[in-house]
Amino acid sequence: MGRVSERATSVVWFREDLRVADNPALHEAVRRGDPIVCLYVLDDESPGIRPIGGAARWWLHHSLEALGERLREVGLTLTLRRGPAREVVQSVVDEVGATRVLWNRRYGEIERGIDGDLKAGLRKAGLEVESFQGSLIAEPWTVLTGQGGWYKVFTPFYRAVLAKQTPRHPLPAPTKDDGLHHREVRSDALGDWALLPTKPDWAGGLRERWRPGEAGAAERMETFLTERVSHYVAEQDLPGEEGTSMLSPHLRWGEISPFQFWHALDGHRARASKDAEGAAAVLRQLIWREFSYHLLYHLPSITTENMRSEFDRFPWAELTDAELQQWQQGETGIPLVDAGMRELWQTGVMHNRVRMVVASFLVKNLRVDWRVGEAWFWDTLVDADPAANALNWQWVAGSGPDAAPYFRIFNPELQASKFDKHGSYVNRYVPEAGTPAYPEPMVDLKESRRAALDAYATVR
Ligand code: FAD
What we know:
Layout: E1 10-14, H1 24-32, E2 36-42, H2 54-73, E3 78-82, H3 85-96, E4 100-104, H4 109-124, E5 128-132, H5 154-163, H6 204-209, H7 214-228, H8 232-235, H9 248-252, H10 258-271, H11 276-298, H12 321-328, H13 335-347, H14 352-365, H15 370-380, H16 386-397, H17 412-419, H18 424-429, H19 445-457
Parallel strand pairs: 1-2, 1-4, 2-3, 4-5
Helix pairs in contact: 3-4, 5-11, 10-11, 11-16, 13-14, 14-16, 15-16
């Protein structure tokens, strides 16, 4: 199709920012006042792009549905296209004769390559292209050590982020009264992307637990601030309680921005001093998210390579498919591990404390390469995030930055007695634990711990 425009048109390319409020790219398009094309591209074809997993596809479907509705409320339309992003964005630009392309930045190496190429090509063709800071409070190149390097350890990174200027305040969402115009352009039908599972439909537990989209995110944040942040410090490690924000999938898909969450927490702690400690503790977790992107940006190989090279020689064990399935399906015979793996399968998330326990069990007691576990999480988490998932797996494995020392091997029984004292979490997911219907442990915890330490001694 050739160019048809007589007037300026903005394309806003949505990526991991599926929201209307505090969306700097959209905000800029609204400010310019020209007709707008709101575009989302499903790209599982560009070389090097890692296709999202099954649970994430379920989330994305509903999140796009919600974004489409939000945009309609303010007079805009969501255009959906599928294919390699570079070509698809270029083709939409050509079809509508766009004069301006706007997006919020991403931080993965492949994604930055795509964005950089597009920006250069479009600018060369005379278009205005602008990118914005929407998804991270501390962009990786803005937080540097005194020597100008990047941070490999969390605590100094955390302090450096806190020492920076207060993050900007969230931008308002556009409204119907802004008199916005959208440009009509062909869109795929969301249903044709077949993101939802059908045979079988395993998403019942996800539907029960989640409401993807901006409104669901705002509701979660509100509930957290009014009901839970005051108990956060006491309950954040208790998987049987709803003690944490549960915002991770909403943050992952950008249905809420870290700026919104930051200022909501900050405002809340100023108003409710009893909650100050809880709010500060959540901010610290939010900065772990920033840290994971800091590492992803400065060391892109973190998603696939051991950060500490001695782990390249580690004698990983090869499990049979059936043994690996025992871990994946929560049939290891270790109740806390099984509860976590079943929670993951049923709800698309797992409590952070239990993520550490199941990861330690896989990597240390079963001596399986962390990448095998990372891949399973990638497929089954609704919050599967390239940066946080890799960083945390490497942290537990001991191969990563600022990692738990290898000899710190979580004992799932002790963890259960400490953090699930009354067994409410285990009983919820593994009601048959302690009965003859429950399998024997697939490994002896003490022996497998010793074997793991022996294996580590060979590479130290
Ligand atoms: P809250 O305690 O309410 O924390 C607020 C926010 O801070 C979270 O929503 C999240 O965005 C961020 N955050 C908290 N802890 C971490 C952390 N350790 N690393 C990075 N960010 C953090 N988190 C993901 O978002 N995606 C993943 O793919 C992911 N994979 C993990 C894999 C393993 C092996 C482990 C041990 C942890 C992983 N985490 C991951 C981190 C953490 O488990 C989740 O972010 C947390 O459980 C989300 O719950 P919440 O939103 O209630 O967290």
